[in-house]
UniProtKB/TrEMBL annotation:
<dbReference type="InterPro" id="IPR042092">
    <property type="entry name" value="PsdUridine_s_RsuA/RluB/E/F_cat"/>
</dbReference>
<dbReference type="GO" id="GO:0016853">
    <property type="term" value="F:isomerase activity"/>
</dbReference>
<keyword id="KW-0694">RNA-binding</keyword>
<dbReference type="InterPro" id="IPR050343">
    <property type="entry name" value="RsuA_PseudoU_synthase"/>
</dbReference>
<comment type="similarity">
    <text>Belongs to the pseudouridine synthase RsuA family.</text>
</comment>
<dbReference type="InterPro" id="IPR020094">
    <property type="entry name" value="TruA/RsuA/RluB/E/F_N"/>
</dbReference>
<dbReference type="InterPro" id="IPR006145">
    <property type="entry name" value="PsdUridine_synth_RsuA/RluA"/>
</dbReference>
<dbReference type="InterPro" id="IPR002942">
    <property type="entry name" value="S4_RNA-bd"/>
</dbReference>
<feature type="compositionally biased region" description="Basic and acidic residues">
    <location>
        <begin position="251"/>
        <end position="265"/>
    </location>
</feature>
<dbReference type="InterPro" id="IPR000748">
    <property type="entry name" value="PsdUridine_synth_RsuA/RluB/E/F"/>
</dbReference>
<dbReference type="InterPro" id="IPR036986">
    <property type="entry name" value="S4_RNA-bd_sf"/>
</dbReference>
<dbReference type="InterPro" id="IPR018496">
    <property type="entry name" value="PsdUridine_synth_RsuA/RluB_CS"/>
</dbReference>
<dbReference type="Pfam" id="PF00849">
    <property type="entry name" value="PseudoU_synth_2"/>
</dbReference>
<protein>
    <recommendedName>
        <fullName>Pseudouridine synthase</fullName>
        <ecNumber>5.4.99.-</ecNumber>
    </recommendedName>
</protein>
<dbReference type="InterPro" id="IPR020103">
    <property type="entry name" value="PsdUridine_synth_cat_dom_sf"/>
</dbReference>
<feature type="region of interest" description="Disordered">
    <location>
        <begin position="244"/>
        <end position="265"/>
    </location>
</feature>
<dbReference type="Pfam" id="PF01479">
    <property type="entry name" value="S4"/>
</dbReference>
Length: 265
């Protein structure tokens, strides 16, 4: 027997916190009876569980990596019809969702999964999972700027946690472009851009190159891939979870959106 919200999250309905909200709102039923108690335990192999009257489908977890281009929204759909990252993935049986998001004008590594609990744990501040960005800024990243990034930058929503900084290329002058690797474990809105802008270093280009133990590597822009078995184990361990059996997504044999790229193995 498992807690109802955990079963919903594992089925890919939503994160565990969102599933708790669905239960409290009376939108979840077990064997036809509405359940609003968060501590309720169920046997998904024997009981009929539904959300808004629609039975859930138990899915085995899968995890994908996408090298997100700029000018795509990190969301499942958009009411204005703008391009979303889901258009870059192939049709598959599993219902995957982005793990967090990257800004419209930010590129790089974006994870997708149908494991709601994994998503919640990866994004929870208490896990302090490191994200690494390649940042191109206009201006000289001097010793004072590096110290501020490593000690914490004062933003309108509080001082940032200490970051790891590596200057890969210094700017030729105030109008030149410097390239920096920045590693942070927080996930505030547009945090990296705001940190550098606070220091008078406007961001020209921003790309995430690693999320915890998963790195972008040589994956081309717009391409996706599945995790390797080693990445699979390391990612679940970073989230404080026992790794489930490794599996690949089930790709449907349907015509892909013309913008959807091929995978790399």
């Amino acid at each position: 027997m498992e807690r109802l919200q955990k079963v919903l999250a594992h089925a890919g309905v939503a994160s565990r916190r969102k599933c708790e909200e669905l239960i409290r709102a009376g939108r979840v039923s077990v064997d036809g009876q509405t359940v609003t108690e968060l501590g309720a335990k169920v046997d998904p192999s024997r009981q009929r569980i539904a959300v808004d009257g629609v039975p859930i489908e138990l899915e085995q977890p899968v995890v994908l990596v996408l090298n997100k281009p700029v000018a795509y929204l990190s969301t499942v759909s958009d009411p204005l019809g703008r391009r979303t990252v889901m258009q870059l993935l192939p049709p598959m049986r599993e219902r995957v969702y982005p793990v967090g998001r990257l800004d419209y004008d930010t590129s790089g590594l974006l994870l997708f999964t149908n494991d709601g609990e994994l998503t919640q744990r990866l994004l929870h501040p208490s896990r302090e999972i490191e994200k690494v960005y390649r940042v191109s800024v206009r201006g000289i990243v001097d010793r004072e700027a590096r110290r501020a990034l490593m000690e914490g930058v004062e933003l309108e929503d509080g001082v940032t946690a200490p970051a790891k900084v590596e200057v890969l290329r210094q700017a030729d002058g105030e109008d030149g472009v410097a390239v920096v690797h920045l590693a942070i474990h927080e996930g505030r809105n547009r945090q990296v851009r705001r940190m550098f802008e606070r220091l008078g270093l406007p961001v020209v280009r921003l790309k995430r190159i690693a999320f915890g133990p998963v790195s972008l590597g040589h994956l081309k822009t717009g391409e996706w891939r599945v995790l390797t078995p080693d990445e699979w184990v390391a990612l679940y361990q970073a989230a404080g979870m026992a790794p489930p059996p490794y599996r690949r997504p089930t790709i449907r044999r349907e015509p892909q959106d013309k913008r959807a790229p091929r995978t790399r193995s």
